[in-house]
Every structure is written in structure tokens, then in C-alpha cells.
């Protein structure tokens, strides 16, 4: 199909030169060969000249990747202060970090990283005051840290640990079983698992898997025919018992879990990232069949556990901000469901049944509020949270009278508290040892007006006492999709920006879940432009209020946020000096044809749905709206060779198109990480390298030289 197959690899190794008269850099990029591929949608032809880059295993694509990285890293290596940024990142990163302990089967599990370890280590202990013993050290699974722990589950009797690993950042998991007392792995080895954990029952567990993909399709082929199996310890995977499949709906996926008392198998059925059907099976009755309780995908249904003969269900069914309900398994139809905790003004994010109470985490204006109810849903009191931030934890067994939770904010490193459930008392359990003075920084939450008048919240973080004179460098971050909420969180990488006087802003765009399902739906399908309008309005606010100016503003986002950055860079390139789209969904006409892309149709719609939907998608699709003669900001696209969620072809085709059409002086480049995926499990050293490059790119294109003491 391709002419002059290796042409791009020969043309690719290009020089970076300077214009002597203007002292501006001239960028030469690899010559990306174009084909005459055309796709037809409802009678309209759409060119796909870079469709060949979708073949992620071809020699042509490999040569193109090498050529692009040559150009990008030649530029990054030329930035004099890049190594200083990396050194500073490594220095502030080097402090102990750990998760809140989780109590199960008379043991406590927690993760700990001594500082610069590539992967955090799983510890186990009998006494909460002890440090405990290493149960699993992922750093020993690979020399370069690219094999990561991707899920673990202890059996109810505390004898075994099932754990999944991911290689090079792929979403594919491979599961093993460890005997906890001896520390030895058993013979069990399960493969081709994606987006499924294990649900212990009897002498084995339930899990779901896909068929083994054809050679060459592992990272880009569509994932279909998901099935639930039961694995008995010691058996070969080929002998696992098929529990459930639906051949008539081969695009559906199934997630099994078992209630803590092993009384019920719960099956969540999904066809997208939003909404699920719900099936149950009585495991105490060997003749019981799988019963379909909910058969539509209009709402979310999450069974928490089986308590006092009732299944506790968290749902947004008839309650866009979610509520807690009870299901009688003998009368499981929705008309018999009962409210336990009714819908409130805040969004219910999670409920922990523990210590005879229901500890409920709510989201109010994108930060956490914790309320405690009795087991019948009567409100008792709030848990006092010390900062405006995000709270996680409250895990453990139902009978536990104490639990642990973690608090974090933009300027508060993860702080773990020990919580006395009966007396509603918290005490500090573990604070961070990072060398960082949070008192020098401030966080404010403002509400700005979007294009259609909608009030949108945004967090703004910076050093205390900065002048609002329009000269501050600023980063604006957003996501806006899939009911995902952006709440305050601490990031070591962000400190590099803040300590240099940078402003960090995070906008809570429509499409997210910050105000429930209505807020989510307001940024989906034919209303997706609301998300981009919200982000543009956030940038305009920062400029109008003199936090920054267009030549000092960078925008960042990943995955759906990468789509966001790509779309607004096309729509309003005048607002931004730098754009960093990471692992973005850049081809809105073909996204659903790869791996799990079809699941995103609930948010996006597809080009096959209707002529109207096709035209709407094409109108904002980043690849299809790059124009010649337009002045674009400096662009650094980020992706990775093992990203099998948003396949790297999105980023490949986007940068090839941008390099073809843009002839200005700003660099438009792509950084392609090797042995990495969508982001999860990335080794510490790769993260440090990546952010050193990102900040070097941003500072350099803003004309700023960071200074470190």
C-alpha cells in the first residue's frame, strides 16, 4: 500500500536551525507520506491520508515514530535548564509515601514507596502499629519498573492474594495467586483480562476475560465477546467454568463481584462508560439462575454489599445526584426498592457500611463532605475534614469499629487519619514527610460564566502575594467527560510550576460529574461543545482577571482531556501560548473502531449514528479542523506505544496533520514514550523524565528560565 516505505525514516533525521535575522527557530519535521484513502459518511467523502499510521505494528509506523522522537528529543535536549528541572523533580519526589491501611481477615494491607521506587510495594501486618512485611514488591518483576501491579484481592479467609500485573502500561492484565503464609506463588496464571478484578467464592473466584486476540491486534483490535468464568485454585485457565456470556450482544462487558458473605454473585453489565444493567445470582441455591434485575443502561447501579437480608444499592435511578437504596432479593424488581439515604443537594460519591454505620462521601462544589448515618439511613453527624480537599478511604470489614481515611488538596500532601467510628473522632495517623511549606501557597475557588451563562467552578492555586498584573505563567487543566469529577489533589509534579511563581487552574467543566448526572449529560453528544466553551471561558477569565495573558498561558489535558485541548486549540489558538494534549481522542470519526472505543459512544455518539451526529463530530474533531494559514500555539503531543485504551494512532494522525498545515515558528511536536500505556502503572523515573520534558517545553516557549536555589 505504501510507496517508498522507508522514505520517512531517511527524511526524518532533520536538523534544528536558527534564523539569524530574527533569532527564531525553524522546525523541520519528518515527511509523513500521504495516501489517497477516503472514508464515506452519509454520502460525504472524508480524506484519511494518514490512516496507515493506525497500523501500530508496521515497519513504516515504527520508522515514523523513531523519526518524530528524533526531532522532539533533539529540541528538548537543547533546552539548557531541562536537566535542572529534572534534578529538582527528583529531589522533591524523594520522600516516603504510603496509602491508608485496609483491614481484612485480621490483617492490614497498605502500599508504601520509600521515595524514588518505580512502583509502590504492598505490605501486610497483623498489628496496626507495626511496619509489617512485604507481601508483594512489583519492582522485582522487571528491571526497568515497567511491570506494574494492576489490582489485588485477598480471599475472605485471608489465605490467598490474587494479583494482576500490567506490562508496559497496557490495560491487559495477567493474574497470579500468592499463598500469603508462605509468600509463594501458586501455579495459577490467567490471561487476557481487562477491566475486571477477581471475586472470591469458595475455593476460587469469578472473573471476566476476552478471547485471546489475533497476533498483531493485541493493542489496537476491538475487544468483543467478554465472558464471566469461575476459576478454581490449581486449575489451568483452559479448564475454567463458563458462568455467563451473551453472544447476541458481543460488545457488552461483564464485571462480577461477590458479597462479603458469599451469598450473592453480582454482575454489572456495560455497553459504555455510563450506565449499567444489573444481574444477581443466589449462590446459596445451587439451582438458582442468574436473575436480570435491571436490563437497561439508562442509569448507574452499584451494589455495595448484602446486609441484614438486603442488597444495598447506590444509584442515580430517578436521582441524578445519587442515593442509597435497599433491594429485597426475594422481590428484586425496582418497584419494591426502598430508599435508605435519599438524594441530597450534594452528589453522593460513595458509602462505606462499617461499624454499624453508613459513612457517606459527598461532593459539594467539587470538594468532599463526609456524613455519617445509622444503618437505617438516619443522619447522625458530619466528619470534620481539616481542609478544602478530597477524602478517600473508610474501608474495612462491616464489624470494624475503626477505619482510616486520607485527605489531600492542591497544597496538602496525602495525610492519613485514624477514625473512631462510634465516637466520631479522628486522630492523625501518618503525615507526609515531603519538604514543602504549604503555608506559602493559597487555593481559591471561583465561579465564572460560560458562553451560555452557565456558572462553572474553577480552582486557582498560586503563591501567596503574587501580583495580578497579567505576567504570571499559568497552566489551565480540564477534562469534562464521562461523569468523571476533578477534585483537589496533591501532585509533586505541580510543585515545579508553583514554586516558580506559576498559577495552576483546574476548571470543573460540564461533561464531568461534579453536579451529578445532569451536569454530565450537559457535556455529551450534541452538547459536547459546551465543554469546549466552558474551557475557553475559563481561559478568558484568567486573562481578564490578570492572572496571566495569552502569551503566558498553557493548557493541559489527557485522554478525553486531550480531545479537549486539541479541540480548543483549533477553535481559539489565540488564547494560548502552549498546548499539551496527552493520549487524546483526536479522530472523532473513527475512535469507536479500536479496543474499547465503542464504550465511549454514550458520551460522544459515533459517526455511524446519523448524518447529524457525523456532522457534529466532524465539526470539532481535532484532526479534521486543523487549518492552513492559522497561527497555532506551541504544541507538545504526548502518547505511548502501549496505550491500548486511546490508541496512539490518534496522536500520530493529529501531529502529522498539524505539521503538514502549520508553517509558523512555534514547535509542534510529539513525544512518544516507549514501554508505557495510557498512564496507569508508569514507573517513577518515566514520570520524572516526562514532566521534566513538559515543563522545559512550556517554560522555553514562554521565554522563561526557571531558577532553583
Q: Characteristics of this structure?
A:
709 residues; Rossmann fold; 8-stranded mixed sheet; 5-stranded antiparallel sheet; 33% strand; globular
Secondary structure elements and their pairing?
Layout: H1 7-12, E1 17-18, E2 25-26, E3 38-41, E4 44-47, H2 59-77, H3 82-93, E5 97-98, E6 102-104, E7 107-113, E8 121-125, E9 133-136, E10 147-154, E11 160-167, E12 173-179, E13 185-193, E14 199-201, E15 204-209, E16 227-232, E17 241-244, E18 253-258, E19 264-270, E20 277-282, E21 291-294, E22 301-307, E23 310-315, E24 323-327, E25 338-341, E26 347-354, E27 357-364, E28 367-374, E29 379-383, E30 390-393, E31 402-408, E32 415-420, E33 425-430, E34 441-449, E35 455-463, E36 474-477, H4 492-498, E37 503-507, H5 517-521, H6 529-544, E38 553-558, H7 560-571, E39 578-582, H8 601-604, H9 611-620, E40 634-640, H10 649-661, E41 668-673, H11 684-702
Helix pairs in contact: 3-4, 3-11
Task: Describe this structure as you would to a colleague.
The chain has 709 residues and is α+β, with helices and mostly antiparallel strands. Among the domains are: 81-90 and 436-702, Rossmann fold (3-Layer(aba) Sandwich), CATH 3.40.50; 99-244, Methylamine Dehydrogenase, Chain H (7 Propeller). It is built from eleven helices and 41 strands. The protein has an eight-stranded mixed sheet, sandwiched between helices. A hairpin with a 7-residue loop joins strand 8 and strand 9. Helix 3 (82-93) crosses helix 4 (492-498) and helix 3 (82-93) crosses helix 11 (684-702). It is globular, with a radius of gyration of 26 Å.
